[in-house]
Amino acid sequence: MRPDAALLAFCCLVLSTTGGPSQDFCSQVLNSDVKPGFPETIKTNDPGVLKAARHSVERFNNCTDDIFLFKESHINRALLQIVKGLKYMLEVEIGRTTCRKTKHPSLDNCDFQTNHTLKRTLSCYTEVWVIPWLQRFEVPVLRCH
Ligand SMILES: *[C@@H]1O[C@H](CO)[C@@H](O)[C@H](O)[C@H]1NC(C)=O
Ligand SMILES: *[C@@H]1O[C@H](CO)[C@@H](O)[C@H](O)[C@H]1NC(C)=O
Questions:
Q1: Which ligand is nearest to the CA of 117?
Q2: Residues of the chain under the 50 pLDDT cut
Q3: What is the pLDDT of residue 105?
Q4: What are the backbone angles phi and psi of residue 123, rounded to the nearest 5°?
Q5: Where does the secretion signal sit in this chain (predicted)?
Q6: Which of 63, 104, 137 is the best mutation target for the ligand 1 pocket, counting ligand atoms within 8 Å of the beta carbon and taking the most?
Q7: Could you give the domains of the chain?
Q8: Rounded Cα gap, residues 16 and 59, in angstroms
Q9: Alpha-carbon torsion 63, 66, 11, 29, what sign?
Q10: Residue whose C-alpha is closest to residue 59's, from 25, 26, 23, 107
Q11: What angle do CA 54, 108, 53 make, to 5 degrees?
Q12: At what angle do helices 47-63 and 5-18 cross, to 10 degrees?
């Protein structure tokens, strides 16, 4: 029942190439007079960081064919850069929960697997771009291993 590692890698590769900002977005940034800020370290328990991590894991769950949902278990590092909104760069660990995908439960109510055969933790690097005034977010990068 564990997800095929190759499939996962492929899936995440696709995510990080096709899920990226559109060409328009890139040229907009390049042509912008406003210089983007440098990434700065922020607290891993910052509400924005937690939200960004959740967005990433939701994207991860949508992308895998695991029968269980994964949830963020620990955020190791968080950087924030101001670029036409907020860009979070996170190192986050995610773990398999006991919640089945098919039941669409809220991740908040999902506990991590304790069964040794089903337990699984992955380390991910993810970038989440949030445009607060449009209430939009994108996950241009998501790599897990
Ligand atoms: C979820 O996955 C499906 C199929 O893999 C894809 O078409 C869809 O765009 C994904 N949605 C999100 C929000 O990632
Ligand atoms: C752990 O999960 C496996 C696979 O679903 C199952 O066969 C096994 O009985 C479970 N072990 C315990 C202690 O629940």
A1: 2
A2: 1-34
A3: 81
A4: -100, 130
A5: 1-19
A6: 63
A7: 5-144 (3.10.450.10)
A8: 11
A9: positive
A10: 107
A11: 10
A12: 120
> Which value, in Å, is the radius of gyration of the alpha carbons in the chain?
16
Q: Which ligand 2 atom is at minimum distance from the Cα of 115?
A: 1
- Decide: 8 and 144 in contact? Cβ < 8 Å: yes
Q: Whose CA is nearest to atom 14 of ligand 2?
A: 115
Pairing mode, strands 40-41 and 136-144: unpaired
Q: Of 78, 82, 11, 13, which Cα lies nearest the Cα of 51?
A: 78
Distance CA 75, CA 121 (A): 13
What is the Cα–Cα distance from 136 to 46, expressed in whole angstroms? Answer: 19
Closest among 10, 17, 6 to 141, alpha carbons compared: 17
**Residue 21, CA distances (Å) to 18, 90, 92, 98 in order:** 8, 17, 21, 33
The pTM assigned to this predicted structure is 0.76
Q: How far apart are CA 5 and CA 2, in angstroms?
A: 8
CB 95 within 8 A of CB 103: no
Query: Look-up: residue for tokens 């910052």?
Result: 46
